[in-house]
Every structure is written in C-alpha cells, then in structure tokens.
Predict the structure.
Amino acid sequence: MSEDFNDNKTIQAQSSETTSGGGAGVTPDTDYVRPAEVADQDLYHGHSFITKWVFCQDAKVIGVQYFLLATFTGIIGLILSWLMRLQLGFPEVASFMTAEHYYQFVTMHGMIMVVYFLTALFLGGFGNYLIPLMTGARDMVFPYVNMVSFWMFFIAVGVLLASFFVPGGPTGSGWTLYPPQSILEGTPGSGMGIILMLISLSLFVIGFTMGGLNYLITVLQARTRGMTLMRMPLTVWGIFTATVLAMLAFPALLVSSIMMTLDKILGTSFFMPTILQAGEVLEYGGGSPILFQHLFWFFGHPEVYIVALPAFGIVSDLISVHSRKNIFGYRMMVWAIVVIGALSFFVWAHHMYVSGMHPWFGFFFATTTLIIAVPTALKVYNWILTLWRGNIRMNTVMLWCLGFIVTFVNGGITGIFLGNVIVDVPLSDTYFVVAHFHMVMGIAPLMVIMGAVYHWFPLVSGRMLSEKLGKWHFWFTFLGAYSIYFPMHYLGFIGVPRRYFEMYDSPYITSAVELNQFISTAAFIVGAAQFILIYNIIVSLRIGKPAGKNPWKANSLEWLTPAVPPEHGNWGDKLPVVHRWPYDYSVPGAKEDFIPQTTPPSEVADTEVEKT
Amino acid sequence: MSDPKIEGYEFKPGYKGMARDTASDQTMFKGVHWGKAMMWIFLLSDTFIFSCFLISYMKGRGSTTVEWPNPSEVFALNVGGVPVPLLLIAIMTFVLITSSGTMALAVKYGYERNRKMCGWLILATALGGLTFVGMQAFEWSKLIHEGVRPWTNPFGAPQFGSFFFMITGFHGTHVSIGVIFLSIYAYKTLAGHYDTGKRGWFTSMKGNYVEIEILGLYWHFVDLVWVFIFAFFYLW
C-alpha cells in the first residue's frame, strides 16, 4: 500500500499540468487522474434514416433494437404460454389443440424465453445500452461488428419464427431438444422444424459472439479515465461476467447443434444409437444420446447464470439508488458474481440425475451445486443489508426490486431441494421443477427487467413512466405470478408430471383439476397485465412527465451525459473523468444525498466520504 | 517485448505488475490494441468449440460398437505400389506450419513498415493455406472414393467418417476463411492502405499494421488446432 502511495506522489509531481477538471487553472493534487492512454474513439456518424436508425452503429440504438425485437419474441412466447395454460386448465375450450401442438408450444415457449428473450434482452439490450454509458466509453469498441451482431440476431429470430410455417411445424421435442426423439418421426416438427431450430441457434451463437466480444473489450480496454474495475457499477460487472460465461458456454451449444443437424440431414450417428422407428430398424447406430445431454447442459447451466448475473447486477444498482445507500459489501458482490460464474461450469450434470449416468457423478455435481448456494445467499444478504435503515423510496422500481428478492429466495430454496440427487429423483419431471425454474430464472429476472425499464426509461426517452400504472402493473404481476407458481410446487409434490398434454383420468390427479383452472386463470391475468407496461410506454412517450437530467439523483455515469437522452458519442466534446465508485449515497456532511462519480475529491473534502 | 510507454503510469514486473494493471483505470491490458484483445478472447471461445468437438470425438470413438479403423492404413498413400502411412498428412502439416512461419515474418516486416515484404509474405501465407486446403480436398476425395461417407465406412465404425469429415471440415473452413482474409489483407498492405490510413470498405475505420498481427494470431491458432487434430486422428 505504502509503495503505491509513493508512486502516486511522484506521478503527481511530474505531470500536474496535464490534469484536467478545474477550468480555472490549478487543480488540487487530490483530483489528479492519469491522462488518457488511447486516442479518442473514431466513430462513424450516421447521416441518413437508414444509417441512423436501421443499420446503425450506435450501441444505444442497437440496444433499443435488441430490446424491441427480444420483447416482440417474448410476447410470442407469452401467447404460447397462454395456449398451454388454456389446454391444461380448460381442455374443453382448447379443443383446437392437439397433443402435437401442445409439445410444439412447450418447446418454442421454452427456447424463446430463455435464449431469444432473456439472453438477448439482458446482454444485447441492457448490455449495449448501458456498458458504454456506465464505463464512460463513447461507444462499443467495434461498432460495425456490433451492428452485424444485431442483424444476425434478427435473422436468427426470423429463422426461428419461420419454423412455425414449415410442413410439420416447429419442433416439439422440448427446449432441451434431446435426441434421439427430437429428430425421429413421431415427434412433432422432426423434419424441417428441428432443422430450422438448430440453424437458428447456430446463427444466434454467431451473432452473440460478435456482440459479446464488444461487451468484453469495452469493459476491459475502453473505460474512461479514473474508471477502475472496482469502480464499475455492479450492472456492468453482472453483464460482463455473463458475457464471459456466454463466450465459453455457447460453443457447446454450437457444436451440439452442428452435430445434430448432421445426424438429421446426413444420417451420421453422433447421438443416435441403434434404434427402431415404427417397428423398422433405422440406419443409425453406435452413437451416444447422453453425449448430447452433456454438451447441451454444459451450455444450458451457464445459460441460467447468463440470465441471472445481469439481473443480480442491475438489481444491486436499483436497490442502492432507490434506498439512498451504498451497496453493502461491494467487493463481496463483485467476487460473488465472479465465483458464481466460475462455479456454473461445474454443475451441469445436475440436470441429468435421472439420465442413467454414473451415480458418483451425481454425488460430485450435487456437491458443486450446493456450493453455489454460498455466494448466492451472500448476495441476498447484501441486498437486504443495503435496504437496512436505508431511505427507501417506495416507488415502482423499488417494488420490482423487492419482488425480485422474495422471488429469487423462493426459487433458490427449491433449487436446494432439486440439487440433492435423492430429493430430485422423485421430483424430477414434475411441476415442482417447472415451479422452481420459473421462479428463479423466469419471474425473478423478469422482475429485474421491469424494474430496469422503469428506472432507465427516463434516460432512453427523456420522459418518466406513469407511477400509477407501474404500481398496478407490479401488483398484478407479483401476486399473479405467485398464484401461478406457488400451487405448482404442490402439484409437483403430489406427482403431477410436467410436459403432459392432458392428465386423463389418473385418480391421484383429480384434485389437481381445479388447481390447474386456478393457475390458468391467473396466467391469463398476469399475461394481460404486461400490456399495462406497453400501454404505459406508448402513452408516456407522448405525454409522460419530462424527466430532465438525472431524475433519480443517481451517481453512475449514464445519468451524467450532456444531453438527455444521450447522443451518439455519449459525452459531447469531453469524456467524463471518474473519481469514485457509483455508490456514494447519503454521505454524512455532503450537501446532497448523492455524490456523482465525476465529483472530484476536493469538492467533497469536508464530508465523511470514503476513498474508493 | 518491452512494455509500452504510458504517460503517468509505471509498469511493475511479475504478478505484482499484473495486479497493478488489473486494478488500474482505462485498460486492463496496457498498450494492447482493442482488436488484438478481441482476437485473443475470440480464440479462447473458439478453443472451446474445438475442445467440444474433440471431446465428443474421444467419447464417440470410445463407445462405438464396431472397431475403429487403423489410421496408418486408412490414411496411407500409395507411392509406387507401396503404401506409405502418414505421407500426405506430413506434407500438409509441414505446409501449414511453414505458412505460420511466413506469417510471423509478415508481422515482423509489418511493424518495420516494410510494405512490400509484409504484403508478399502475407500472400505466401495465403498460398500455403490454399495448398493445405487443396491437399485436404484431395484426401477427402480419396476417402470418398474408397467408400468412406459421413454415415458409413467400409473400414469399420461409421463414426470414423462422421467425425473425420466434420472436424477436418470445420478446421478447413477456418483455414479457408483465413485464406480469404489473408488475401484481402495482402491487397490492403500492398496497396498501401496502412501507410495512407485509408478507411476500410465496410467499417469505414482507418487501418493499421497491427491488423496484420491480429490476423497472424488467428492463423497461428488455426495451425495449433491442426496439430491437435493431427494427433487425435492420425496418431491415435
């Protein structure tokens, strides 16, 4: 420590003329920040409608594009879930649905929500919009590649949706796409449907890699002066770590997609054992279906954290801003994100306890799974300790954050059930599993997305969203989501299997009929309640209260741009200089209850602010 | 390489220096071009792709019901009626490794701003890559001629054909993409775009000789992957 201190002293002595900040001549030594290492970024400024809004290289526009397309895809996923719930709750009304339709809707709902909605929205949407703004960069480091990334995603979505219109329809093999059944006759969409799905996934991976490289290098190499890694908002940490996971996990998805495409089209037998189809021996033989499961879950488990880590990061920032307190244990939060990310590569086979793999594997993977509970629980404690004696603003954003914490704890606890082999075996493939993963990686991240939308909408549009509508939206969603998923835990305990088109006359399931009707009704209401948000956005864009600069009195850089909403290049002529972390709220002695990251130490010398 | 000079920043050796760089502002890898950092991370991701392929191959080869063909017979080349094992593949590997050498020289001349030498060496690298792909096409057609297909194999396990064509095909695609980019960069270098700072066709960004090094990283990686594929398919 003393060595570093001396270092700084000598640097200050050498180059105090090059410091910036105070316009009126002398800047105090305490405010010194090293000069920029690299020249200012060269940007391509769009000059026509097409280069400004369609094939645009501005990360903010690309972020909004990602957001809108992911939301559009998500609404399709929502409609599919309505159709599924209609069948489960009121099969007589859903007489137009066959079992094949049901499987196709289950599959497409799962794949859309996990990959094309949540992943694209968090990393493509929030990542693109927030990373350059929060780290003080002018844009992503490779704006052109970033633009191509979005358009690859666009094509991937197009191919995915095209599979609804091919003969046989989309694949109905479940979002895990397990072979052999996914490519054999008898499974809906085993022809063109599965092929288009695999192609779409491959395109998504390629597009995402382009975006992901941008996010990583922007965070690593393009931060502004004074922005150290440990001064980054947790949002950036969450998205950054999730992107690292994606860069290392998506390869397994790409490889398994390629291999299965070849199994389907060329008749190779990577995943196909000797097998009969309709009493006839097929040409396949000698492949391993379990290999696919390993590859898929080596992608699939980190994928859960690709969705969860950005949510963790964003919610930490929202809680801190809206309870006017620094985040409790910032460094601990950062390390927890990193550790969760690393551990997520060693737990994949807990999705495969009943696949017939060696029992010792189950032992190992149960242990690693339960270890993840440690950093995760730590994060939950820190969120609660951040709220502890905070000056909590009970606005819509805070409601969503609180909803997230409760939902996440709930889903996390059922995760501990399922992580143990011996508890998992009877519960696997029941509604308990459905309830668990919807709580922990469906509803919980969704709550964060909603909170983030209410929080950052004023920045993106320059207008506030209606609080009144926001609260209605929250309470419908929160209470509704619990009405849906709480009873599902019970359904799982009594043994109702998931992915069943109908329950027939199983005597032990008759008690579930009314419960299913209740769940379906709640699902319709919750789904419809999401249109409150869409209405709110459309109306607020026109007549919302003008937000002005920094309406939440936040510290992080995205609120400190010269123009609201920020323009291309973000910072006008001069890049911001950072002097502190983004969590200096309610500092004793300070004039206001927040100290933006750009405030130099000399301005707050007489407060009790800590050096960060 | 010596550390780059950065105003107001003092480099420290060893782990301490690494920790210092990590804890500092602006950049984590001091003086490293954005594109170069990007290529390293891309290659890490690509390593995972090839690892998944090769691990799948090991699993597939380990669990087939039919015996795996003997590589020294399948890949042998008949020279004057005598089958010589590993002959073609030895030449292919030699060509590819040599092209790595010319690439490294091109990077050196690029940093010396020797436009001509740099450009011609990149072109030589591209030719090496093209020769490799050509010989691979020859090997593929030889195997196909003998009846090996992705779905069947007269010499034993059908997975042999599946994995061989898939993995060498995926690697060959990497080489081909490399050849295309090498040709473009050879043109750009010889036309002097890096000296005049002419803007790129697509990205409208100014070029720089560092791009040669970035392309070189990719090329060396493709060679390195080949060494693994060589070991796993031909020597196992």
